[in-house]
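Students often ask why inverse folding is considered easier than folding. One informal answer: many sequences map to the same fold, so there is more than one right answer. In these notes we will look at a single instance of the problem. The structure comes first.
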C-alpha cells in the first residue's frame, strides 16, 4: 500500500468522526487508541499529550508540536414547538455556505441527519434570491414533528450540530468535511509512528489540542504544563490556486507544505503570529537540505492556536507549518495528500535537528 493510500484511509477515519469544539471526545478516544503504547495524558479540557521520550540532561530542549482536533459547526439555541431547530455558530461558519446544507447530530447512540431549510425556489421573491440569510434567521429540519420528539431523541439546547460526513477523492486530492484540522491530526499520528523507537536529540511532546475553532486558547493548559522552548503548530493554510483567489497569493496544491510568516485577525480578536525569525531560518535550512519545497504564507483573516500559546511563560519561539487547503471552513474542504506527505517528512527532519546547540534567542 502506498503512503498516499494509507494517508487517505486514515484521513477518512478521522473525518468520519463528529467532534466540534468543546465536544471532541470521540476524536480524543480515537487518538488515545491510536497511541496507546506511548506515555499519554489527557488534561481536564481534553488536550491529549503524547510524551515521546525523556532526555536526562539538565533542562533539555523541549519541543512541542500540536494540531487541534476540533471542527467548527453549529449549536442548537432553540427548539421550536413544531420540531424545527434554531441554531447558532460554533466557530467561523461561513453563512454563505449554509442554505440547503446537510447536517448531522451525534447524540452518542445515534446520528441524526438533517438539513438547513430553504424557502422553496418557486415562491422566493426576487429580492431574496441573491441574499445570504444570517445564522439567526435560519433553521434546521431533522424531520421531527414536535419539540417533544426532539427531546426524546436526546437533542437539547446546546447540542452540537455538524456538517454531514462526506469523503471522496481524485488520486491524491481529497474532498471532505473537517479537513481543518483532521489533516493536522493525521500528520501527528504519522509522525508518532515514524519516530517510534528512534533516539531524539530533544524532549518531544506531541499534543492534540481542543477548542481552537472556539477561542484559540484550548491548548494553553498543555503549553503551561510542558513549558516548551520551541513550538510548531500544524494547521492549514489557504490554497490560492482556484479561479476566485487568483493573484491573492502564490500557494498551490502540489507545491509542498507551507510556513506561516504572518497571521493576524483584527476583528475583535487582535491575535496572530509573527514567528521567531531564527526558527524560520532554521526551518528553511532543514527544508532546503532535504529538498522539500516550502511555500511562504502571509494572511490577514486567519489564525492558529499559536496566537496566544506563544505568550506563555517568558515567551515561546513558535512557527506555523501547514498544508494548502481549498474551500476552508466550508462543508467540504480539499487537500492534496502529496503536500501532507511532504509536511510529515519536513516535521520529522526538524525533530532530529532540534538540539541544545540551536540558537533561537532574539537579538
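Output (designed amino acids):
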Amino acid at each position: 500500500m502506498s503512503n498516499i493510500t494509507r494517508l487517505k484511509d486514515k484521513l477518512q477515519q478521522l473525518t468520519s468522526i463528529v467532534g466540534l469544539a468543546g465536544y471532541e471526545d470521540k476524536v480524543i478516544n480515537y487518538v488515545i487508541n491510536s497511541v496507546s503504547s506511548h506515555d499519554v495524558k489527557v488534561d481536564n479540557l481534553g488536550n491529549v499529550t503524547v510524551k515521546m521520550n525523556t532526555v536526562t540532561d539538565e533542562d533539555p530542549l523541549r519541543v512541542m508540536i500540536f494540531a487541534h482536533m476540533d471542527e467548527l459547526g453549529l449549536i442548537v439555541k432553540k427548539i421550536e414547538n413544531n420540531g424545527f431547530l434554531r441554531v447558532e455558530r460554533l466557530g467561523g461558519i461561513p453563512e454563505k455556505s449554509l442554505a440547503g446544507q446537510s447536517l448531522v447530530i451525534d447524540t452518542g447512540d445515534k446520528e441524526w441527519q438533517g438539513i438547513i431549510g430553504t424557502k422553496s425556489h418557486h415562491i422566493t421573491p426576487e429580492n431574496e434570491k441573491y441574499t445570504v440569510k444570517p445564522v439567526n434567521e435560519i433553521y434546521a429540519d431533522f424531520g421531527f414533528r414536535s419539540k417533544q420528539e426532539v427531546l426524546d431523541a436526546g437533542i437539547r439546547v446546546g447540542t452540537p450540530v455538524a456538517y454531514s460526513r462526506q469523503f471522496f477523492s481524485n488520486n491524491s486530492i481529497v474532498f471532505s468535511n473537517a479537513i481543518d484540522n483532521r489533516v493536522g491530526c493525521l500528520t501527528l499520528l504519522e509522525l508518532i509512528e515514524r519516530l517510534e523507537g528512534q533516539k531524539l536529540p530533544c524532549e518531544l511532546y506531541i499534543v492534540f489540542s481542543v477548542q481552537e475553532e472556539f477561542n484559540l486558547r484550548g491548548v494553553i493548559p498543555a503549553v503551561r504544563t510542558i513549558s516548551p522552548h520551541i513550538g510548531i503548530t500544524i494547521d492549514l493554510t489557504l490554497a490560492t490556486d482556484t479561479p476566485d483567489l487568483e493573484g491573492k497569493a502564490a500557494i498551490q496544491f502540489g507545491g509542498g507544505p507551507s510556513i506561516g510568516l504572518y497571521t493576524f485577525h483584527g476583528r475583535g480578536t487582535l491575535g496572530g503570529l509573527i514567528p521567531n525569525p531564527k526558527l524560520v531560518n532554521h526551518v528553511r535550512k532543514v527544508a532546503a537540505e532535504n529538498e522539500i519545497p516550502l511555500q511562504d504564507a502571509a494572511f490577514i483573516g486567519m489564525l492558529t492556536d499559536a496566537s496566544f500559546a506563544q505568550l506563555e511563560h517568558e515567551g515561546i519561539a513558535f512557527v506555523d507549518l501547514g498544508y494548502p487547503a481549498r474551500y476552508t471552513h466550508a462543508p467540504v474542504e480539499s487537500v492534496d495528500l502529496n503536500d501532507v506527505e511532504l509536511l510529515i517528512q519536513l516535521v520529522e527532519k526538524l525533530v532530529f535537528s532540534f538540539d541544545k546547540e540551536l540558537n533561537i534567542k532574539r537579538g
